[in-house]
Structure formats: structure tokens, C-alpha cells
Amino acid sequence: MVATIAAGDPIRLVWRNDLGGRTYRLDRSGHTEYVKWAPDHPEIDLEQEARKLAWAGRYTVVPEVLGLGRDTDHSAWLHTLGIPAMPAVAPRWKADPRRAARAIGTGLRMFHERLPVSECPWSWRIRDRSTRIRNPDDMALLDVVPEEDHLVVCHGDPCVPNTLIGPDGNCAGHVDLGSLGVADRWADLAVATYSLPWNYSPAYEDELLDAYGIERDGDRISYYRRLWDAT
């Protein structure tokens, strides 16, 4: 299907996840498109991601959905228009991690402020995420749930690669919204800072939080990181 959509234009594999999913870049004349392909898996729902992109796109910059479908080999695909910016893991931004971390922080704040909680039909709160816990030992997380600080529409997977940064060094948009839903803002902040050492260095965690405009909350960060690992 990717080759059919490309219609002869260059195709490049740009991402492969642990569940077997792949993302391809299509270089068109004057713009870029992407096709996300995924095998059937209970943790991957490209139809729902398309709905979330369409909803979030009313309020902030996310990829425009161009097409969606299923193949006969029990797989699905999602075709989107590219955003003219680079992911925060691009070499340009890995070479300037402080600026990138701040762009991620301001971008996440922008995301949280723009999307209306009252109109969001999806949840990413602890009680809903708990259905993904598989290890019985991790069920103890449900006995020590922290009080929610401030409900927002969370990105759900705010790891470094999912923030796009423009040439001016500012956040230009977000991708991979499959887990979007209402939750405490620390569900995003804990994971966004968690991912910095995987791509830059833990030294920039406070830069991200400062750019977001919030002081570190060690207890909530620890809890939501453990929940992330458990689910």
C-alpha cells in the first residue's frame, strides 16, 4: 500500500517501533507526506489516531490526515501531510539540546493550553490506563495514586521525537497522538523529561520544566514514570 500511495515518488523508512509498526516518508514535489503502517495489535489503533488528529487539528498544529485504510494482511495504514519542521531528535537539535529541550517545554505548554478539556472525548487518566498493566506487581501503583494537580488534554506520548521544531528554534507542531486524552499534566511532563536522557542528557530536564513554566514535582514525576513503564 505504501508503494501505491507513493505512486513512484521516493520512499524512505524513517521510524520503526517495538510493536512492528513502521513510518515511511514520501518526498513529493514541494512537500512531504508520511504513511504509518502497523500490524494488528491491541496497542495500535490507527483509526482512533486519525480521529484524534482530526480533533486536535482544530486547535493546534498536528499532521493533516490524507487517508486511512486496512490491507488484507491484517494491517492498517494512516497517510498524513508532513509539517515543515524537523523532529527534536534531528542532528540539528541534538547539537543544541538546551534550545531543543526548551522548545519541547514551551510546545507542551502550548498544547495543554490550546486543547479544551471539556470537549475532549478521550481519557488518559490513571484509572483508564490501569487496564494496560500486565505485571501483577505493578498493580500496587493503583494503591498510591497521587492527587491530580491540573487536568489538561495530554499528548500521551510526549517523548522527544514527537515534538517538531521549526527553523526558528520554536515548537512547530506535534506528531503521534494515538494516546491523546485528558489527564493530569504531570502524565505528560514526567514522560517528556524522562525521554531527554534517551536523546540528549538528564541535565536538560529542568530546562524543559522551566520553559513549560512549572517547578519540579519529584513525587508526581516518579509516579507517572513508573506508570509509563508499567503500561
Put simply, the count of helices is 8
* Class based on secondary structure composition and strand pairing: alpha+beta
**How many strands, what sense, and barrel or not for the largest sheet?**
5 strands, antiparallel
The helix content, as a percent range, equals: 25-40%
Task: Report how far apart the termini are.
Answer: 31 Å
Strand content: 15-25%
Side by side, the strands of the main sheet go 1-2-3-5-4
Corresponding CATH architecture of the largest domain:
Alpha-Beta Complex
Into how many domains do the coordinates divide?
A: 2
Report mean pLDDT, rounded to a whole number.
93
Overall CATH class of the largest domain: Alpha Beta
CATH superfamily of the largest domain: Aminoglycoside phosphotransferase (APH), C-terminal lobe
Uncertain runs: none
Give the helices and strands as they follow along the chain: HEEEHEEEHHHEEEEHHH
From the spread of the alpha carbons, the general shape counts as globular
Please compute the radius of gyration using only Cα atoms. Answer: 18 Å
Enter the CATH topology name of the largest domain.
Aminoglycoside 3'-phosphotransferase, Chain: A, domain 2
Number of strands: 10
